[in-house]
């Protein structure tokens, strides 16, 4: 029984790891120069943590077909807003 639980846990972990690696990721301005720009996006939210902003950007970038994004504008506080350039 323990072997089945271990195998199930490893299978789930590999699935989660693949999902995370497939998401669009943040890059530097220097890295962006090596990629093809494919558009821009922006996200805004009331409250939350910086990680929430990164997750929202990554999700929206992935929905637009981008592999990476570079933040060009960001404002934080009680509300936050970020604008990014998308890249393939």
From TrEMBL:
Domain YdgH/BhsA/McbA-like: 35-88
Species whose genome carries this gene: Tenebrionibacter intestinalis
PANTHER family (alphabetical): OUTER MEMBRANE PROTEIN, OUTER MEMBRANE PROTEIN-RELATED-RELATED
Signal peptide positions (record): 1-22
Pfam families membership: YdgH_BhsA-like (PF07338)
Signal recorded as keyword: yes
Keyword Signal: yes
Keyword annotations from UniProtKB, A to Z: Signal
Protein name: Peroxide/acid stress response protein YhcN
Taxonomic path: Bacteria, Pseudomonadati, Pseudomonadota, Gammaproteobacteria, Enterobacterales
């Amino acid at each position: 029984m323990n072997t089945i639980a271990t195998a199930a846990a490893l299978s789930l972990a590999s699935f989660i790891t693949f999902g995370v690696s497939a998401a669009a990721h943040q890059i530097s301005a220097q890295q962006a120069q090596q990629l093809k720009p494919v558009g821009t996006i922006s996200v805004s939210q009331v409250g939350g943590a910086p990680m929430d902003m990164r997750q929202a950007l990554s999700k929206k970038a992935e929905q637009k077909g981008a592999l990476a994004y570079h933040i060009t504008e960001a404002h934080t506080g009680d509300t936050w807003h970020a604008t990014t350039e998308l890249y393939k």
